[in-house]
Structure formats: structure tokens, C-alpha cells
Design a protein that fits this description.
The structure holds 2 protein chains of 2 kinds.
Chain A (H helix, E strand, L loop, with lengths): L1 H12 L10 H6 L4 H30 L8 H23 L1 H7 L3 H4 L3 H12 L4 H29 L11 H15 L7
Chain B lengths: L2 H12 L15 H7 L3 H25 L8 H23 L1 H7 L10 H11 L4 H31 L1 E2 L2 E2 L12 H19 L1
Antiparallel strand pairs in B: 1-2
Helix pairs in contact in B: 1-7, 3-4, 3-6, 3-7, 4-5, 4-6, 6-7, 7-8
Classes of the chains: A mainly alpha, B mainly alpha.
């Protein structure tokens, strides 16, 4: 039951994009089409879960053990960057079809602040490993949901007559604002 | 110093404010921009922290640009940036704990701010130490300017106050302090700045 609450909280109440403002770049940049949005969301789900497990283990068994917690930022970003590279190489070898689907998004993920953000958040919240994994999965699902909804909206908005100055990013931001407003309706759910 | 180089440095410094403003024109670093600007002081603090990291990493990257093999260039830049982020994290938690608390997660996330890596790669790895320093300072202050502006607008509308000084003793339009207000505020500021800088 607790795990279900964590997942619902991470998807709807504290949505990573619309309430915590992490991963805005891919949110605005990639989400032009629903299909690409699903691909990007899938890649984030995969890397975020993996990265959270690895960084949690490194923090608990290396950094905290030797009292060098202040190395957290440096250690985490290096681990995530090399992890993304490794995932890319392994996927290419083992599952070419999955690589085809996620491949183009993987290099972009290193600089996705949602990944590093969740890795740091679970440490700050003192979650144990199981909680951390569940939280990472829920957050990534929330990212996927926001991305897909936003892409669907964007496919429609392109046909609308928008004032020239508002076209592109400003219009997208206003739409994201309305979406965030809608998601605020979920607050107090958990 | 020749007049031409002075002019060039001046241009490097001022371009970050309007012409190449990282937030309003280049649309980089939007996560902290939207995340911390619930008040003007938070925006200013975040902007100055990023400026410190930008200047530091720009200078160091431009100093070591000759020694780094091309292939490991990006990881090396990231380590340099992460070191400066760790420095500012420790300094802020020691001297301005209240601000450090309210910025929270976004301080370590300066590491993945595209502006910092972008300037290291696009400018500091190709230019002299001094012009990299000027570029970092200009871009950083441009970022700080953008964040303070958005923070002021949101604080002014959301709680009728500015830098903590309250003008009207009632509750503001709460939505501007909450998440949606960040998106709305930034959208209209971008439109406004685009018009002004033309």
C-alpha cells in the first residue's frame, strides 16, 4: 500500500515536470509528436531506475561509509554519464530493436536534470533502496505522462491561429502552465 | 590594451543581458529558472551562485584547454563544473543557510545546467583566459538578471511584495507563486523581451 501511495504521489501530486520543474528541456524540446514522447519517456524510465539504484548503492556503501558525502555531486554526475554510455553500448549489442527505439534519446539523458535530481532527492529524503526504486519508477512514469499529454496537445495547437510573438516556446509555456494548473487538482490526494 | 580588444570584451560582457540572454533568447537553463523564482531574492541568489560556477569553470577550462585530449573533453569539463558546484554548495550551506534551504535541490543541479557546459564548450575551450572570464561574468549576470526579473514579477503578483517588502497587506494572486505561475510568467516575459530587444 505504501508503495502505491509513493507511485501515485510521484506521478500526479508531485509531478516531476509540472510541479518540480525538472526535465523541462526535453519536455519543451522533444515533445512535438506523441510517438517521440513515448520513446523519450521509455528511455528516461529505464535510465532513471538504473541510475537511482547505482547512485544509492554508491552513496550508502562508499561515500557515507568513508565520510566523504560532499563528493556526492561530482560522483553522481560521473556515474550517470558513464552509465548512460554503458547502457547505450550494451543495448546496441543485446537488443538492437530496443536500441532502435531508445537510441537517439540516450545521449540527451545525461544532461536531463530529472535523473540527477531524483538520485539526489532519494538521498535527501532518506529512502531505503526499495522506496528509492519505487520512487524513481513513479517519477519516470509521471515524466512520461506529462510528456505524452503535452505532445498530444502540441499536435493540435500547431493548427491554431496564434499571434506571431506568441508562437513557439511562449505558447508552449502557457500550455504547460494550464496543464500544471490542471495537475494542481490532484494535490491533497495522497 | 588596444581599443578594439576593449570593445570586444565589452561586447562579450553585455551580450548576455539582452542579445544572447541565456533564459529569454537562448532558452537554456529553464529548470532552475522556473523552479526557484518564487521570490526575487531566491532568483537573485540562484543567479549569483550560477555566475560563480560559470566564471570559475570558464577560467579553469580555458586554462587547461591545451592539455585535454579532444575525446575526453566533455567529461573533464563536467568534473571541473562539478567541483565548482560543490564549492558553492559548501559555502552557501555555511554562510547563507536560509537561502541554501529554499533553493534546495537546484544548487547541486547547477551541474546539469546547459548554460555552464555550453559556455565551456562553445566559448572557454576556444578563447583566452581573460575573455572567458568576461564571457562567464556577462552570461552569469544575464542569467541572474533574468531570474531576478521573473522572481520579482511572481513575488509582486503572487504576494504583493518585492524582496520581502510587502506593499499591500492582503494575500496576492496565489497562483503566481505556485507552479503554473512560473510557466505563465516566463512565457509573457519572453514575448516582452523579444519585442524590446528588437
Amino acid at each position: 500500500m505504501e508503495y502505491i501511495l509513493i507511485i501515485i504521489g510521484a506521478i500526479f501530486v508531485n509531478n516531476i515536470v509540472l510541479a518540480q520543474f525538472l526535465g523541462i528541456c526535453p519536455f519543451l524540446g522533444v515533445s512535438g509528436k506523441v510517438k517521440t514522447a513515448v520513446g523519450m519517456g521509455g528511455a528516461v524510465l529505464f535510465v532513471m531506475t538504473l541510475a537511482t539504484i547505482v547512485t544509492w548503492l554508491i552513496y550508502t556503501y562508499i561515500l557515507a561509509k568513508f565520510g566523504i558525502e560532499y563528493m556526492r555531486t561530482i560522483a553522481f554526475i560521473l556515474v550517470i554519464a558513464s552509465l548512460v554510455q554503458m547502457v547505450e553500448i550494451i543495448l546496441k549489442k543485446i537488443s538492437p530493436s530496443l536500441y532502435q527505439a531508445l537510441g537517439v534519446f540516450l545521449p540527451l539523458i545525461t544532461t536531463n536534470c530529472a535523473i540527477l535530481g531524483v538520485a539526489i532527492l532519494v538521498i535527501d529524503k532518506d529512502f531505503n533502496l526499495a522506496y528509492s526504486v519505487v520512487y524513481a519508477i513513479g517519477t519516470a512514469l509521471g515524466f512520461l505522462l506529462a510528456l505524452v499529454i503535452f505532445a498530444g496537445l502540441r499536435e493540435h495547437i500547431e493548427k491554431l491561429p496564434i499571434p506571431k510573438a506568441m508562437q513557439g516556446v511562449p505558447a508552449a509555456l502557457v500550455m504547460a502552465g494550464i496543464l500544471a494548473l490542471a495537475f494542481m487538482g490532484f494535490s491533497g490526494l495522497v | 590594451m588596444k581599443e578594439e580588444t576593449i570593445m570586444n570584451n565589452l561586447k562579450n560582457f553585455t551580450k548576455g543581458f539582452f542579445k544572447e540572454n541565456p533564459v529569454f533568447i537562448l532558452l537554456l537553463g529553464l529548470c532552475p529558472t522556473l523552479g526557484v523564482t518564487t521570490s526575487a531574492i531566491n532568483g537573485l541568489g540562484m543567479g549569483l551562485a550560477t555566475t560563480f560556477v560559470l566564471v570559475g569553470s570558464n577560467v579553469v577550462v580555458s586554462l587547461i584547454k591545451g592539455f585535454i585530449p579532444d575525446k575526453v573533453r566533455i567529461p573533464s569539463f563536467i568534473v571541473v563544473i562539478a567541483s565548482f558546484v560543490t564549492i558553492i554548495e559548501l559555502v552557501m550551506s555555511a554562510y547563507v543557510p536560509a537561502l541554501y534551504e529554499s533553493l534546495g535541490l537546484f544548487i547541486p543541479l547547477i551541474v546539469v545546467n546547459c548554460i555552464v557546459l555550453g559556455r565551456a564548450e562553445a566559448f572557454a575551450s576556444k578563447n583566452t583566459v581573460f575573455s572567458s572570464l568576461i564571457d562567464g561574468l556577462g552570461m552569469g549576470l544575464g542569467f541572474a538578471f533574468a531570474l531576478t526579473l521573473l522572481g520579482s514579477v511572481r513575488e509582486l503578483l503572487g504576494s504583493y511584495s518585492l524582496f520581502g517588502y510587502k506593499f499591500i497587506q492582503t494575500d496576492g494572486i496565489l497562483v503566481f507563486v505556485l507552479a503554473p505561475g512560473a510557466f505563465f510568467g516566463l512565457a509573457y516575459l519572453i514575448v516582452l523581451i523579444k519585442k524590446v530587444s528588437k
